[in-house]
Amino acid sequence: MILGPWFNKKVIDPVLEILKRGTEPKELAFSTALGFTLGLFPICVEMQLDFTDEAMALSGVPVFLCGMAIAVLKSNCHAASMMLANFVSTPVELSLVVPFLRFGETITGGSHFPLTSDALKKVLTGQASQEILISIGHALLGWLVAAPFIFATLYILLLPVFKILVLKFNSGPLSPKLPLNSHRDLKIKVRDV
Q1: pLDDT, tens only, 26-73
Q2: Which segments cross the bilayer (predicted)?
Q3: pLDDT at residue number 103
Q4: Which residue, 34, 70, 94, 121, shows the most beta carbons closer than 10 Å to its own?
Q5: Burial of 1 per CB tally in 10 Å (0-12, 13-18, 19+)
């Protein structure tokens, strides 16, 4: 099966590397939940990156949002797990665009936007009507309302998972902020000059 080696290389191996580095489970759960939630942002702008022999497509807006979150949170988040969760969330993002649209329409009481090939053609050719722009607004509103609940649910579910996984795969101290040795073990030698 072709998907197995790809999945191991792109998802499993990076997760194991993250776990072996000794990151705090709370930080991993927070960063992963945030990365996945931001990865569900319903506006998709695909960017094609070409690195030597391997091409990679990224969803532009969710990647940008994760980059902004990493810049704002700095050392309070784990950038690698956030970006990995963002990458993993892409298929889910594409499947939730319509539910976010319908949820936004329900919240505002707006009319039901018909999803037809003609509407898609207008979006792709840049001839978007006001109706299409309003539907994009509805999808954004649906995501904005749902995002805190998605984040909280993921954090609550991921925290015990990461606690177990960090204990199982960790090879060092839980945090780079914690010293390997306690202060009692340090002996200071004073030399007479």
Answers
A1: 999 999 999 999 999 988 765 444 444 444 444 578 888 999 999 999
A2: 28-49, 55-73, 140-166
A3: 95
A4: 34
A5: exposed
Residue 28 CA to residue 18 CA, distance in Å, equals: 9
Question: Rg of the Cα trace of the chain?
Answer: 22
Structure token pair of residue 163: 């606690």
d(C-alpha 18, C-alpha 166), whole Å: 9
pLDDT at 61: 85
Q: Where are the domains of the chain?
A: 8-172
Q: Is the pLDDT at 140 greater than 60, yes or no?
A: yes
What would the two tokens of residue 162 be?
């990461």
Q: Which residue has the tokens 């539910």?
A: 99
Residue 189: both structure tokens together: 């030698």
DSSP line for 12-68: IHHHHHHHHTT--HHHHHHHHHHHHHHHT-S---EEEEEETTEEEEEEHHHHHHHHH
- Amino acid residing at 67: G
